[in-house]
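Record type: monomer structure entry
Structure origin: computed from sequence
Chain ID: A
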Amino acid sequence: MNKNHFIIIAISILCSTLAARAASDGKVHLKGQLIGMGTTSVKMQYDGAAAIVGDSRDLTLHTDKNGCFDTTFVLKQPTYYNISRNTLYLSPGDDLTVRITTNNKEATFTGQGATANEYMKYRLFPKGGSYIEGGSNLRADFVQTKALIDSLAAVRRGELAALKGVSSQFKQLEGARITADVLNSYINYISYATWLSGEKKTREQLTEEIETFYKNLTAYANPLYKAVAKDELMDVAAVRSVMGYIVQPENDTFKAWGEGVSISPRMTEMYQAADKANMLRSRVDRNTLDSIRIFMDRLANKEFAVELQAKLKQAQKLAKGSPAIDITFADVEGKTHRLSDFKGKILYLDFWATWCGPCKQESPYFEKLSKEYAGKDIVFIPISTDTNHKAWLNYLNAHAKELKQYNCVDPKLHSEWAIFYIPRFVLIDKDFNIVDAYAPRPSEAAAKTLIDSLLK
């Protein structure tokens, strides 16, 4: 054996040793470029089982002005994360160089862990009807649509089976994702079919049609549920999405889908905790907070209790009379402002986005109300939450606004103000204390009543 062979063997042993050490330390090295995120503080959202309850495990990737970043963090076990529409599967010891945009299919990965993440580029979205893909894969009837769904799933299973260099755990989880996506596609078929048919039907007719379809779906749904109803598969978002139908069934048909399916105590607690977390994403009173504390103390699965505790703390910060949380935002010229710059006046905030239909419906009411209170001690502040700054500017160029416009990508919108849905309206008093973190919409008479009471 010559000298070069010894060198190659030595390097191979060294690399293997370093990789094993990194894996044992639980370190993940992630670097590269994030493009079009709209901020230099990009949220990498934890997407394991506890994500259905809260987001305390989220990480923030800090980039330079070109979106470049380099970070190292520790993982105890393989975990799913989301960056924009991209879902990553990261394992202890991964050393990945990435290029990620808001289009998941454009992502590139090199290094340790690349194979799994190249596969993840093409994962489907439950909210898009999974294999229905927003209606684009809808066919003339359910039989034909089902045939297409099943064929697409078979192709995906083949791709998964052919992967080399990924763990058996990854293949198990992603196999469950395929099954859950198929099930989600079946369930969502009727919604897309009735929506896109163009036929005018009464609410009663639509209800009957959907109920009949769901009943007939039981024979297909039940065996798929039996395949995915396992604790170890709850880390897959698509599995969590479909399991909600049978863990907390709203009617007898959903109960039938889950006939004979084993629902573990952990699954039950997970969905119960998620319900409590959802309650905390809106206006809550002291009695509600107390009942959630009692529930939280009784949780057997502490991972859910930790997430619920973080949500409880967040909700308390938004209680009436609490100090308003300061955020930064920019105007159309790019000048940065702070919310606290407006302290001394009543503030009525409108959190919206260019892609949000209900937001755009409220906008004229917001502007009209601002005119009614012109000269009064109140400032109306519309704040776009668009991460695509160019899309926001283009929208404003096409839609004239009289109020000064702002755009905010401050991470505290999510972590502190709990802006999980829009439109969202907030009222702050002259002392910069919260009056209502879930204020009435400007189209509602209650908005004027509340504002008038503050101006007295």
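Annotation 1: The CA atoms of residues 267 and 377 lie 51 Å apart.
Annotation 2: The domain at 3-110 is CATH 2.60.40 (Immunoglobulin-like).
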